[in-house]
Amino acid sequence: MINNPARTSVRFHRNVALIRVGEPILAEEILARKPLARFILGRLSDTVLLVEPSSCPAVLEELRRMGHTPRLIKRPQGR
């Protein structure tokens, strides 16, 4: 007989925007900056932040003001 492990709920989302940084301290810096923090919906890990998708242009602009050089990655539609 096979043990039945606890079930895990999984959801897939479309139109998700993330900020992924190399070091946790950079995520802290972003969260501490009020113009950016208002667009952050949550923290998925030490280095990944969930961003309001409609705010991407403002987030990119603010990251550049902070001296960062963000790389925008878009997935093709339908994937």
Q: How would you describe this structure to a colleague?
A:
The chain has a domain at 17-65: Alpha-Beta Plaits (2-Layer Sandwich). The protein has three helices and three strands. The chain has helices at 24-32, 34-37, 56-65, and strands at 17-20, 40-45, 48-51. The model has no long low-confidence stretch (mean pLDDT 86). The protein has 79 residues and is an alpha+beta fold. The protein starts with 16 loop residues before the first strand and ends in a 14-residue tail after the last helix. The longest helix has 10 residues, at 56-65. Strands 1-3-2 form a three-stranded antiparallel sheet, with no helix packed on it.
- CATH topology (fold) name of the domain at 17-65: Alpha-Beta Plaits
CATH superfamily caption of the domain at 17-65? TFB5-like
Order of helices and strands: EHHEEH
Q: Provide the CATH architecture of the domain at 17-65.
A: 2-Layer Sandwich
Instruction: Going across the biggest sheet, name each strand in turn.
Output: 1-3-2
What's the shape?
Answer: globular
The average pLDDT value, as a whole number, equals 86
| DSSP summary: helix tally | 3
* Total beta-strand segments: 3
Largest sheet: 3 strands, antiparallel
Spatial separation of the terminal alpha carbons:
38 Å
Helical content (DSSP H or I, runs of 4+): 25-40%
| Low-pLDDT runs | none
Percentage beta strand: 15-25%
Rounded radius of gyration (Å)? 16 Å
Class derived from helix and strand content: alpha+beta
Please report the first level of CATH classification, the CATH class of the domain at 17-65. Answer: Alpha Beta
